[in-house]
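SEQUENCE-TO-STRUCTURE ENTRY
===========================

Backbone structure tokens: a row of integers, each naming the local backbone shape at its residue.

Task: work out the structure tokens from the sequence, keeping to the layout shown below.
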Amino acid sequence: MIRHAVRMLAVMYCVCGQPAYSNYESQAVTPPLSFSQFCIQYPEDCQRHDDRRIRDFRSSVQRWRELAQINSTVNFGIAPKDLPAGRRDAEWRIFPDEGNCGDYAVTKRHLLLRSGWPSSALLLAEVIIRATGEHHLVLLVREGKAVLVLDNLSPVVTPLVDVLDRYILVRSESGTEPQRWIREVAAF
């Protein structure tokens, strides 16, 4: 009963709360419904987190290793499970036994936030897989001037420029406010 009420509130927020596209506010768009539901279930993961990483020359190598380790751990720690036919949105969960791309992406983001990464560097992004037309969720990570993709479909962390031939970027978190999504992904 409560779960149904929460879903209805999330739907009302998404449908009534803001336009799907606006020229104002850096082309703000409605976040995925699954994201809104996720924020109700995991509010701490949807708040702004400041950078708590150690900053020195050696730490940049450690950060790259950390990204690779978390990407690998999550990719192998969650068994893939397709959504039922006709169902595009699902509930995102942190470290389920089995899950879809949303579960992988939010789990990676959760672990990186707990490791001290700032929320402004960890952006969930919706993409379309060019080969299939399927919507897919990945985690974009800004490290210095590089933008990297952590994806359950790839065993390695990949620069964003190297996946643009496979993906069409649809929308992502804004980087300034974790609960705000924007259309212009490249702007962060």
